[in-house]
Amino acid sequence: MTLQLLKKLTESFGPSGFEDETRKIVQEELEPLCDKVWVNTLGSVVGLKKGKGKDKDRKKIMIAGHIDEIGFIVSHVDEKTGFLRFVTVGGFDPKTLVCQQVMVLGKGKHKLPGLLSIAGKPIHMQTPEETKKGLALTDFYIDLGLSGKEAAKKVEVGDPVVWLRELTEMGDLVNCKAMDDRVGVYVMIEALRKTKGNTHDIYAVGTTQEEVGLRGATTSSYEIQPDVGIALDITLAMDIPGSEPHAQVQKNSAPA
Question: pLDDT band at 121, cuts 50/70/90?
Answer without folding.
Answer: low
